[in-house]
Design a protein that fits this description.
- The chain is α/β, with parallel strands linked by helices.
- Helices cover 32% and strands 17% of the residues.
- It contains six helices and twelve strands.
- The strands form two sheets. Strands 6, 7, 8, 9, 10, 11 and 12 form a seven-stranded parallel sheet that branches.
- Helix 2 runs parallel beside helix 3 and helix 2 packs parallel to helix 6.
- The longest helix is centred in the C-terminal third of the chain and has 22 residues.
- The two termini are 27 Å apart.
- About 2% of the residues have low confidence.
């Protein structure tokens, strides 16, 4: 087995996403950030990744010089999803950045009955694309090899019962809604739904949908989403550390 590269995403001077690690090319914005903002010199060892588990070390320059072979890292399992009620201002971006840094795998902006903000049509498309840009930036900063997916806008019914694009996949993996008084999140329910600050409407959650709790206090939507993501990632880390049962 070949030795791993001496430079990794965690130890490199920077980590950048490219279309292909086989023939990596920096876009103009990333090159400007590396050379003008970070002031990295030619020849500096960085890593490039495709956001889908593949990365390799390269030397910064007019052309990126490979410094080692491409590495493929498997995705962590189970996949962890946080679906959050759409809220005002830049708070969706705050959630997207923090959940990326924490290690969540899938983000779903979600329409709720008591939510004040509605994304639809062009507004929804633009908002989701903005979240994807935030996730990319946060993924580079936090040196992620796998970028989280940002799914299209869904509603609670789609998340809890399936029926819309990626939301149906998330629902099939086990879904719970965050409410006061529930048990802590666990890997039994790797998808957690976060409601608006006005709470879930009585008719909104399907009968029998599992619930999880995030502590004894009423949390803002962005706080609840980040807490849920952190608890899920911690549970997965403990499971990985424990290894398979003997």
């Amino acid at each position: 087995m070949a030795d791993p590269p001496a430079v990794s995403p965690q130890t490199a001077a920077a980590h950048v996403f490219v279309e292909s690690v086989a023939e990596p090319v920096l876009d103009d914005a990333d090159r400007h950030h590396l050379e003008r903002v970070l002031r990295l010199r030619p020849g500096t060892a960085i890593t490039v990744g495709d956001g889908a588990g593949h990365w390799r070390p390269v030397g910064l320059g007019t052309d990126l010089e490979p410094l080692g072979p491409a590495v493929a890292e498997p995705a962590a399992t189970p996949r962890l999803t946080v679906a959050f009620a759409i809220v005002k201002g830049d708070r969706p971006e705050v959630m997207a950045r923090a959940l990326t840094e924490v290690g969540v795998d899938r983000l779903v902006p979600m329409v709720t009955v008591r939510g004040v903000v509605r994304w639809s049509g062009d507004r929804a498309r633009d908002a989701v694309e903005r979240l994807r840009r935030v996730v990319r930036s946060a993924g580079m900063q936090s040196r992620r090899v796998w970028l989280p997916e940002v799914m299209e806008v869904a509603d609670v019914g789609e998340m809890a019962g399936g029926g819309a694009s990626g939301a149906a996949t998330a629902a099939a993996e086990g879904v719970a809604a965050a409410t006061l008084g529930g048990p802590p999140p666990s890997l039994r329910w790797p998808t957690v739904l976060i409601g608006p600050e006005g709470g879930w409407a009585p008719e909104e959650l399907p009968s029998g949908l599992p619930v999880v709790g995030l502590g004894p206090h009423v949390l803002r939507t962005e706080t609840a989403a980040i807490v849920a993501g952190a608890l899920l990632v911690a549970a997965r880390s403990r499971s990985d550390a424990a290894g398979p049962a003997g």
